[in-house]
């Protein structure tokens, strides 16, 4: 008990006597100090006293699939900063293969009595994945926001980049450069944002035989693009920047040059894409606006406002760099 008092007091910057007053429900402590002490208990992993467990911690879970893709740390920075401005502390939860799952994190966050959860790039975007932990959050009425295209039956507010517009921009850019054999590298077949991009790709009259599905990784992009290169594509639209980098590697290993022989477009505009060789043409997600909107929707739910389970669509931006060029005359 003494160690807990000392650690919490140091974390908050108050005396052990003040912490003791909060834990024992005594008067004489400001609301701000009381909230800071309770939050420190949660952050340090201590259980709240029984009489205080009915109060929600000012903690918000931020659940991400990985940190290797630069877009997710960037999103975490935006959301964490926006939450801090609203007086909340974000708890970062990252899935690991063979380790802690999304469902495990949800259980842990519920135990910590978090005020809400923001998911980005989660299993909610895969139609064939297990969704029981989302249903549990819905049953508990815990404020929750999903980022980027959930399956239809999950009834939460959503913030998404407009995948249809993103695919339309990418295809239009390649066609303006004279490309006709345009391929597409997407995520898994049950991945909702990939499905949306594919629908637009096909409705634009592109060849369905020039579509490859893979896992979101550099290696996945390389393997998928290698198959497209063998089919003679001159331009490739990718569902992430990592897939695009894998596509560039596949083209080079086939003895081709980017963009002289094959043009490549990514998606996200994650960090350092202007420093690759060549700098990557990509479709930028407006993660600053999306992250702030996700936090606003979450805080509105926490404040008991009525928030419809709608999807806010944000417009992407085509960022043209050096990985796209006019189709080679010999391949027209």
From TrEMBL:
Pfam annotation, one family: Peripla_BP_3
Top-level taxon of the source organism: Bacteria
Range of residues in the leader sequence: none
Keyword entries, A-Z: DNA-binding, Transcription, Transcription regulation
Q: Where is the HTH lacI-type domain?
A: 3-57
Asked if the record carries the keyword Transferase, the reply is: no
Q: Which InterPro entries match?
A: HTH_LacI, LacI/GalR-like_sensor, Lambda_DNA-bd_dom_sf, Peripla_BP_I
What Gene Ontology molecular-function terms does this entry list? DNA-binding transcription factor activity; transcription cis-regulatory region binding
**PROSITE patterns from the UniProt entry:** HTH_LACI_1, HTH_LACI_2
Which protein, by its recorded name, is this?
Answer: LacI family transcriptional regulator
This chain's source organism reads: Nonomuraea longispora
